[in-house]
Amino acid sequence: MAIQKTSREEILKQSASLFKIKGYYNTSMSDIADACGLLKGSIYHHFKSKDDIGIESLKFIHEYFNDEIFSISYKDDLQALEKIKLFVKKTDDYFLHSEGGCLLGNLALEVSWTDTKFKDEIKSYFTNWEKALYLIFKEKFNDNKAHELSKEFVESIQGSIMMMNLYNDKERYLKVGQKMIHLLE
After folding, report:
1. Is the pTM of this model over 0.85?
2. Residues 66, 16, 102, 90: is their CA dihedral positive or negative?
3. Which of 1, 34, 52, 129 is deepest in the core (most CB within 10 A)?
């Protein structure tokens, strides 16, 4: 194997992909090193442990969603319908082109009950997702309804991602976004 220099970001991207596909506990440091074209020991120049990589992978994906998707909710130059359409499109672009489903959803099931660091980061991600949808929905609905809808749709999206992957049927997933759009039409 040719050894190469790899950035911290590339290690996080490869790790996130492996964790989604193989699971956290079934992914070894050797798997991560192989995916990055590194010797196993080289990873320790960037991260102290697999748990460190796991937490940083969650934060990496969370930051991506904050910057690229959740931030749409804060755009003052767009109406609610425009926001939700863009929000759905960008979310679709991510999940329809990302093998293995949702890293944070997968790890919520696999590791959050054993490690509070993981649980706290995963909860923060889903809370931010709910808040972003709430900000869009509150442009048309009262506070209680907007909160209810935001929670319902995050749960529906996560469930539909699982079902999409299980049945290899993206229509199940796409219907959730369409329902959000129709609510604001």
Report:
1. yes
2. positive
3. 129
Report the alpha-carbon distance of residue 110 to residue 118 in Å, rounded: 10
Chain mean position to CA 80? 22
Give the integer Cα–Cα distance in Å for 127 and 108.
Answer: 13
Query: Which 3-state string (H, E, C) describes the chain?
Result: CCCCCCCHHHHHHHHHHHHHHHCCCCCCHHHHHHHHCCCHHHHCCCCCCHHHHHHHHHHHHHHHHHHHCHHHHHCCCCCHHHHHHHHHHHHHHHHCCCCCCCHHHHHHHHCCCCCHHHHHHHHHHHHHHHHHHHHHHCCCCCHHHHHHHHHHHHHHHHHHHHHHHHHCCHHHHHHHHHHHHHHHC
- Kindly list the structural domains of the chain, giving each domain's residue range(s) and its CATH number in brackets, ordered by start: 49-184 (1.10.357.10)
CA angle at residue 53 from 20 to 65, to 5 degrees? 60
Q: For the residues 14-31, what does the mean pLDDT come to?
A: 96
